[in-house]
Amino acid sequence: MIKVAVSGFKGRMGSEVVRTVLAEKDMELVAVLDHEPTEKNIAELPEFHAENVPVYGDLGQLLSEAHPEAVVDFTTPASAYQNTKKIIEHGARAIVGTTGFTTEQIEELTHLAEAKQTGSLIAPNFAVGAVLMMQFAEKVAAYFPNVEIIELHHDRKLDAPSGTAVKTAEMISKTREKIKQGHPDEKETLPGARGADYEGMRIHSVRLPGLIAHQEVVFGAAGQGLTIRHDSYDRVSFMSGVTLAIRKTAELKTLIYGLENIL
């Protein structure tokens, strides 16, 4: 049995991870973390009244007492880096869906994971369909260098653009000709109207209630266009990627950025 802990278990993603881990036959939920817990065990919550899993308010204490092999973190960009660092330092595997990491932070965490010989994964998106969308976009960009990314999320999301959109742009840039898109004399009559600029391509962020996670990668060329779109209608769409990461990181000795690298 793989001993798993969930950080941010009361969040929308965290609670889905808890339900998923409890249902997996080869996993055992040994602890959960909340920044200000009002209960000591998840059995105090109606949904989990039949379970016996301790609730912690301190990650260090959780790691020292519950001894998880893997910790799934869906918290906030402000705490994700320190959480991930602490998890790896304790020799546990970090499976992180929180976005907002800088390149320098990912590099530092990778070096730490290698020093600890501990497999971990940071993924902007755990939906397998979204990962395939990014891979398809990378391939298309070699032939269609004019591209714009439109990402749409719920209005409670804290970062913009999304980690998925940034990761998509990074992957596209590997095969895309470096060009500046649009008219050279283009002017924004309202600042920000053309979206964020990533190496000449544009990223647009939409935040509306009712949405979950959606993205379009729109390519244009002379006389034709190609759109690749992925939609997550329910947070359960991310769970197959989470369980895959929990299992696959046991085979790694370093930190991997992007679910596509373990598919």
Automatic annotation (TrEMBL):
Keyword Oxidoreductase in annotation: yes
Its pathway, per UniProt, is:
Amino-acid biosynthesis; L-lysine biosynthesis via DAP pathway; (S)-tetrahydrodipicolinate from L-aspartate: step 4/4
Keyword match NAD: yes
Binding positions for (S)-2,3,4,5-tetrahydrodipicolinate per the UniProt entry: H154, G163, T164
Which InterPro entries does the annotation name? DapB_C, DapB_N, DapB_N_CS, DHDPR_bac, NAD(P)-bd_dom_sf
Dihydrodipicolinate reductase C-terminal domain residues are 129-263
Catalyzed reactions per annotation: (S)-2,3,4,5-tetrahydrodipicolinate + NAD(+) + H2O = (2S,4S)-4-hydroxy-2,3,4,5-tetrahydrodipicolinate + NADH + H(+); (S)-2,3,4,5-tetrahydrodipicolinate + NADP(+) + H2O = (2S,4S)-4-hydroxy-2,3,4,5-tetrahydrodipicolinate + NADPH + H(+)
Q: Which NCBIfam families match?
A: dapB
Identify its protein family: Belongs to the DapB family.
The protein's name is 4-hydroxy-tetrahydrodipicolinate reductase
